[in-house]
Design brief:
The protein is mainly alpha-helical. The chain folds into two domains: about 45-235, f41 fragment of flagellin, N-terminal domain (Up-down Bundle); about 240-275. It is built from six helices and four strands; from the N terminus they run αααββββααα. It has helices at about 10-35, 45-100, 105-130, 170-175, 185-235, 240-275, and strands spanning about 130, 135, 150-155, 160-165. Strands 1-2 form a two-stranded antiparallel sheet. The protein has a two-stranded antiparallel sheet with strand order 3-4. The chain starts with 8 loop residues before the first helix and ends with a helix.
Length: about 280
């Protein structure tokens, strides 16, 4: 009767399963170490693509919030300057009312005119020198197009913007006429000019206030969106430590058993060969 020793099939099977268990063990260990289930595109290619898109959106939303906060800061600088500008116009109006009184003579009105000229020069200085990050705000030259229109990118995608208009408030633009109080008639006319200027200034400040409110509302909405998108990314990318720890323990035990079985199979084969010696 013929006697033959075939290839050690049991050892090969044990080796095959051992390699598979080791791969699972390494994957589980890597996930536990990094806290992510997407250490490699091979683990979940589609999940990795979605998670990366969500991550980019989260980062974009964060920058959008920063953009809005910076624009709010700029608008606050402009509004603060306009508040002082309005105070100056109020002082000029008071002086104009004083000059319109019939008890004053020409010399009195000339002195008041000098005061008014100085105040208007101060107001014009505010309009021409108020800046934010080197950008002039109140002379109508700000914004990308140089027309006083400031655009804030308020979202993570293209086209998501909010525009804020800051008009030219230099005295030459804001005042519809000259302020000449050297005569009673001139003082009366100047009052109308100042009232119109005050209305225009209030309109400019209203536009700025509306833009601030719009940006603040956008920040609140964007913040909520950022949290929700980050949560969605976490559901895809982050591991369940409890479940992954259980997987690791199972894979580790299977790998140890596989090594033992493979060793036993190799030992059996050696025993067979020793019989022939």
């Amino acid at each position: 009767m013929a006697f033959s020793i075939n290839t050690n099939i049991s050892a090969m099977n044990a080796n095959l399963h051992s390699n598979a268990n080791n791969s699972t063990l390494n994957k589980s260990l890597g996930s536990l170490a990094s806290g992510s289930t997407l250490n490699s595109a091979a683990y979940d290619a589609s999940g990795l693509g979605i998670a990366n898109q969500l991550s980019a959106q989260v980062s974009g939303l964060g920058q959008a919030i920063m953009n809005s906060n910076e624009s709010i800061g700029m608008l606050q600088v402009a509004d603060g300057a306009l508040q002082e500008y309005g105070n100056i116009l109020d002082d000029v109006r008071v002086l104009t009312l004083q000059a319109s009184n019939g008890t004053l003579n020409a010399d009195d009105r000339a002195i008041i005119q000098k005061q008014i000229d100085g105040l208007l020069e101060s107001a014009d200085d505010i309009a021409t020198t108020t800046q934010f990050n080197g950008i002039k705000l109140l002379d109508g030259s700000g914004g990308a197009a140089g027309n006083g229109l400031f655009t804030t990118h308020t979202g993570a995608d293209s086209g998501e913007t909010i525009s804020s208009q800051i008009s030219d408030v230099r005295t030459a633009s804001l005042l519809s006429g000259t302020i000449d109080v050297t005569t009673a008639g001139g003082a009366e006319s100047a009052l109308n000019t100042l009232d119109d200027a005050a209305k225009s200034l209030t309109s400019v400040r209203s536009d700025i206030g509306a833009s601030q409110n719009q940006l603040m509302s956008n920040i609140r909405n964007t913040s909520v969106t950022q949290v929700n998108v980050a949560s969605a990314e976490s559901q895809i990318r982050d591991i369940d430590f409890a479940a992954q720890s259980a997987n690791f323990s199972q894979a580790n035990l299977a790998a140890q058993i596989g090594s033992f079985v493979q060793a036993q199979s190799n030992a059996s084969q050696s025993n067979y060969l020793s019989l022939l010696q």
